[in-house]
UniProtKB/TrEMBL annotation:
Protein name: Flavin reductase family protein
Cited Pfam families: Flavin_Reduct
Entry superkingdom: Bacteria
Family: Belongs to the flavoredoxin family.
Lineage: Bacteria, Bacillati, Bacillota, Clostridia, Lachnospirales
Amino acid sequence: MKKKIDVYEHMGEILKRVKSGVLITGKADDKVNSMTISWGMVGIEWGKPIFVTFIRENRFTRSLIEKTGEFTVSIPVDDSAKKILSFCGSKSGRDVDKAKELGFTYEEPEMTSVPGVKELPLTLECKIAYKQAQDMNAMTEENRAKFYPQDVDSLFTGSNKDTHVAYYGEIVNAYVIE
């Protein structure tokens, strides 16, 4: 059962969990994939609640999000999802069906085409309102050197060669799966 929540009342909790890891899920055609992120923001822009996620250009999940313009954010409410977060942050959806491998459950969405993950029950359904590729020349030298060294192949998990695309997702639905 889904219990609607006021996203404004949960912004602090959402940000706290982003720091330790949440799942971003994309879906296109017959493919669904969730990846772990720990970079993100929640706030208000254009008078709407917005979740901003940053996804490297060559990630499989990004290709799914690009096709539909939608994503979900699945947020743990305790520490029980550590195994899911670890696995989804170290394996590519190009190579493995993460839900099948770990046995987690996709929850049917209400306002988008992208499911949330039942085992991470605080869910944000988002539709892209804006996106922008990061400009390496606009970054500090320190951040460019630390997060984007050019000696790591961008096709591998953990690679640093490609930059991120910022996706501003309007939060069109927020709930906790009970």
